[in-house]
Design brief:
Blueprint (H helix, E strand, L loop, with lengths): L10 E5 L4 H12 L4 E6 L7 H8 L8 E5 L5 H10 L4 E4 L13 H22 L3 E7 L22 H20 L2 E7 L2 E2 L8 H10 L3 E5 L5 E2 L2 E2 H17 L4 E6 L5 E2 H12 L4 E5 L14 H7 L7 H21 L1
Helix pairs in contact: 1-7, 3-4, 4-5, 6-8, 6-10, 8-10
The structure holds nicotinamide-adenine-dinucleotide.
Nicotinamide-adenine-dinucleotide binds next to helix 1, strand 2, helix 4 and strand 5.
């Protein structure tokens, strides 16, 4: 994987850096020679916080790494951190990330995903940190977007989660306009791979199939998703970081997908093959807030970042299953 950072950016703040995507980014930034990587993460219990501690355990003794176990809603803590550290680039990944729980916890999503994002943008402004990367989502497109989704399609969120991500993009645009912060908002399309969140379908299904438990299948299995492998997302994150430093425009919204559409039924059969087990299907009605289809047009990412995702779903799932088995084996041995 091609992960390089520009020379002028040495000091990074990664919010949500103990999570799935964030912890891979921290690994890659440190491996690429970043001078300082500070993680802000609140280790909340949306899923087992021990998983998040494991994700970053390898770096806890690294003098180039600092962990700030803090909530991005806590402005005083962020202000204190901003007095202690100077950042060249903020990569803001912390969020309440599930679509379905956002239907019952809209206020929490608003507070963390909109209020928290505003705090990070304010920190960038106060610090004169001009490079900002924000994790947005394919969910901002809504159910009527024409595939493949292009970044200039109208924003049509149908869940509180999606609405908070759309709001984050707009806030980032506002700060670019007012204060000259160079921002790239990345619309991630369902990311998977080692350390994937346990609430996401691939992880949930793989565990249940391996344990010969039924898996909940919403709808008839014809829904289509653009599943993006974690290494490809990291390549895109590196591209976005470089773009904030060297790109020609101060604000961009960019899709990061694999640009392959996989039906839920096909995903299940790829998982069955990798696990060597037949899935037991528990059919359920489609869920409100879920999109019937996601499909990224990635021509902009190719053009701006040289983004070139190249992981076939069969290979990515095989890697994921190997990781899951390795982790289970380690847990049993402990
Ligand atoms: N994984 C995907 O498929 C996907 C798709 C689209 C967008 N995204 C976005 O990418 C980002 C990372 O997602 P992920 O899958 O790695 O999720 P994750 O839950 O594994 O990581 C998010 C991290 O943010 C932390 N966090 C949450 N609320 C916080 C708060 N108030 N203060 C400080 N830290 C907080 C969590 O503890 C967690 O470690 C999120 O913004 C998510 O919305 C992810």
């Amino acid at each position: 994987m091609n992960f390089t950072i520009p020379k002028q950016l040495g000091r990074f703040l990664v919010t949500g850096g103990a999570g799935f995507i964030g912890s891979h980014l921290v690994d890659n930034l440190l491996a690429a020679g970043a001078e300082r990587v500070v993680v802000v993460d609140d280790f909340n219990d949306y899923y087992d916080p021990r998983t998040k501690w494991q994700n970053i355990a390898a770096h806890l003794g690294n003098t180039r790494f600092r962990l700030e176990a803090a909530d991005i809603r806590d402005r005083d803590r962020l202000n204190k951190l901003a007095r202690d550290e100077r950042f060249d680039c903020i990569v803001h990944l912390a969020a309440r990330a599930g679509v379905r729980p956002s239907l019952t916890e809209a206020r929490l999503y608003q507070d963390v995903n909109i209020g928290g994002t505003l705090h990070l943008l304010e920190m960038a402004r106060q610090q004169n940190c001009r490079h900002f990367v924000f994790a947005s989502s394919s969910s901002v497109y809504g159910p009527t977007a024409a595939p493949p989704f292009r970044e200039d399609a109208p924003l049509m969120p149908i869940s509180p989660y999606a609405a908070t991500k759309a709001a984050g993009e707009l806030m980032a645009h506002t700060f670019t306009h007012l204060y000259g912060i160079h921002a790239v908002c990345l619309r991630f399309f369902t990311v998977y791979g080692a350390r994937q969140r346990p609430d996401l379908a691939i992880h949930k299904f793989a565990r249940s199939i391996a344990a010969r438990q039924p898996i909940p299948v919403f709808g008839d299995g014809s829904t289509l998703r653009d599943y993006t492998y974690i290494d490809d997302i990291q390549q895109g994150l590196a591209g976005a970081i470089r773009y904030t430093a060297e790109g020609a425009t101060p604000f961009e919204v960019v899709n990061l997908g694999e640009s392959q559409c996989i039906s839920l039924n096909r995903l299940i059969s790829v998982l069955e093959q990798a696990l060597g087990e037949k899935a037991i299907l528990h059919r359920q009605p489609e869920q409100p807030g879920d999109l019937p289809l996601t499909h990224a047009d990635i021509s902009k990412a190719r053009r701006l970042f040289g983004y070139a995702p190249d992981t076939a779903i069969e290979d990515g799932i095989a890697n994921f299953v190997s990781w899951m088995r390795w982790r289970d084996h380690k847990a049993q041995a402990a």
